[in-house]
Amino acid sequence: MPGQEAPSSQYEAAIVDALTGQSLSVPELARQLNDADVVIVGEYHGHHASHLLQARLQQALFRQNARQILSMEQFNLDHQADVEAYLAGRTGETELIQDANAWENYAGSYRPLVEFARQNQLPVIAANAPADIVRCVGRLGKEYLTTLPSNQRTALPAQAFWGSPEYQEKFTSTLSGSHGDAPEELSGHLLNTYQAQLLRDNTMAHRILLAREESPGHQVLHTTGTFHSEQRLGTVEALKHRAPELTIAVVSPVEWPSTEPDMRLADHRHRGDYLYFIQPRPPEFRNPDRERQAMQERFSRHRNVSCE
């Protein structure tokens, strides 16, 4: 990419304005984001550069505006009380990890965000839908929500499965592995899987809006997997659908392979308002049999979840 060098380590991120191609430091990015109501930073889960950028941007935004809310895909709404107990000093970090069912990479990836919020007495929003409900929707479809107790259903958004045709096409194309082979009509397991995805996106949008209602004038920094936000789809479009007046800025990661020394901004600017280029993650597997076994073990962990 003209005027930009590829990141030289797994911690580095080269930030650019997607529209102009201007290179930005973290403080410069924060200044451009100063007037945004919601800043959504997509991540590749577990990538050091994503998490380091999120932590640095959180601090830079706070220095400009101390009225800040941290919203996180990485905690589910049914664990909001557990998150608040930790922030209030009633529990320790291991208790937070256990009680709130924190992600396995919490300490290495999300601790800096939560600690900065705790030290500065900032709200932290557990934004994602409850994991067991998402799994059951993935098995049984959206009708599963009608079986929930009223307190669980009312915690979820009224429009729990709103989504655009563009997002559905992106979702099915990603699963099918090729852009032109996505089915026009979803059915069966694929439909249920898509509805589970929509439940996550709409719940995160709903939780962000509730947080802004409770703390007017606060800027929300939301961390999420990039699929939920890039191209301004997923959670972003769910937010705009509910609150079109919001100013939402999307910061998206792009992997810069060493085999492509001349990256073209034009090929990626659709992903977000701002992009940060990072080194690719190492491949998880070289052996396809071991990869299949690992996937089977990963999904078998939750087979005992009852959806009755």
TrEMBL record:
Domain Haem-binding uptake Tiki superfamily ChaN, first and last residues per copy: 29-238
Pfam families: Cofac_haem_bdg (PF04187)
Entry's transmembrane regions: none
Source superkingdom: Bacteria
Compositionally biased spans, kind Basic and acidic residues: 283-299
Keywords recorded for this protein, A-Z: Lipoprotein
Higher taxonomy: Bacteria, Pseudomonadati, Pseudomonadota, Gammaproteobacteria, Pseudomonadales
Region feature (Disordered): 280-308
Official protein name in the record: ChaN family lipoprotein
